[in-house]
Write a structure and sequence with these properties.
heterodimer, A: 141 residues, mainly alpha, elongated, B: 97 residues
Chain lengths: 141, 97
C-alpha cells in the first residue's frame, strides 16, 4: 500500500478533496448536495490519507481525542440551536419564528438556522465515519 | 427434503406474483393526478422559499420542516459509532490481557 505513485497522487488530490467537502457542507442550502454528503467527502479525504500513509500518521494528523470531542459536541450543537428557539418563545428548532435572519435567498448567509445546523451535521458525519474507520483499522492490524 | 424445496419454490413464486400484481396496479410515473401530489408537497413547492429562505428544497425539508427527524438521525449515527467503538475496543482489551 506504501506506493510512490500513490503518495504523489494523494498529495495533489487530498487538499482539493477536503476543500470540496467543506464547500459542499457550507453551500448545502444553496446548491445540490448537503451536509450529509459533504461530511462524507471530508471524512473520506482523511480516510484516504490514513490508507496511503498508514494509520499511525493518520492518527497524528487527526487524534482520536479531537474526534471524540467533535463528535459529541456536534450532536450537542444541534440541541443547543434548537433551544435558542425555546428561549425566544417559539417552538423547539424553529427557524423563522425564532427570529433568525433568513437573508437573501441564494446567498451563502441565507437560511438562518439551516446553515448553522448544516455545519454541525456535516462535521458530525465526517467525524463518525473517521471514527468507524479507525476502530476497524485497529482491529485488523 | 425434496418436498421442502418444492414448498419453498411455490411460496417464492406466490410472493413474486403478489409483488408483480401490486407493481402493475401502481399509477403511471409523473402524472399530475397521482396520489403522491397532495397538499403536503404542494405546500413545500409553493412556500419553502418564503418560509425558510433556502433555494435547495431538499435541505429546507431535511433541516427545517423535518428538523426533529434529522436530529434523531444524527443521534442514531452517534449511537452506532459509539456501539462499534465500544465493541471493538473491549474485545481488543480482552485479547491482550
Amino acid at each position: 500500500m506504501r506506493d510512490f505513485i500513490l503518495k504523489r497522487v494523494a498529495v495533489i488530490i487530498l487538499p482539493l478533496m477536503s476543500i470540496y467537502g467543506f464547500y459542499v457542507i457550507l453551500h448545502g442550502h444553496v446548491s445540490p448536495g448537503g451536509s450529509f454528503a459533504g461530511g462524507i467527502i471530508v471524512g473520506l479525504s482523511f480516510i484516504t490519507y490514513s490508507t496511503v500513509y498508514g494509520l499511525e500518521r493518520g492518527k497524528v494528523k487527526l487524534p482520536e481525542r479531537i474526534l471524540t470531542l467533535v463528535e459529541s459536541y456536534g450532536t450537542l450543537w444541534y440541541g443547543i440551536m434548537g433551544i435558542v428557539g425555546i428561549l425566544k418563545g417559539a417552538p423547539f428548532l424553529s427557524n423563522k419564528l425564532a427570529g433568525f435572519n433568513l437573508g437573501e435567498p441564494g446567498s451563502l448567509t441565507s437560511g438562518g438556522l439551516i446553515s448553522l445546523l448544516g455545519i454541525g451535521v456535516g462535521i458530525r458525519v465526517a467525524s463518525t465515519i473517521i471514527t468507524l474507520f479507525y476502530a476497524m483499522g485497529e482491529e485488523e492490524s | 427434503m425434496r418436498i421442502r424445496k418444492l414448498l419453498i419454490i411455490i411460496v417464492a413464486l406466490l410472493a413474486a406474483y403478489g409483488i408483480l400484481v401490486a407493481v402493475a396496479e401502481l399509477p403511471p410515473y409523473g402524472m399530475a393526478d397521482n396520489p403522491v401530489h397532495n397538499h403536503v408537497s404542494e405546500r413545500y413547492i409553493n412556500k419553502a422559499l418564503d418560509e425558510t429562505g433556502v433555494t435547495n428544497m431538499v435541505t429546507a425539508i431535511v433541516l427545517d420542516y423535518r428538523a426533529y427527524d434529522t436530529m434523531f438521525e444524527t443521534i442514531v449515527l452517534f449511537t452506532a459509532a459509539l456501539a462499534v467503538v465500544i465493541t471493538l475496543k473491549v474485545s481488543k482489551r480482552k485479547e491482550k490481557g
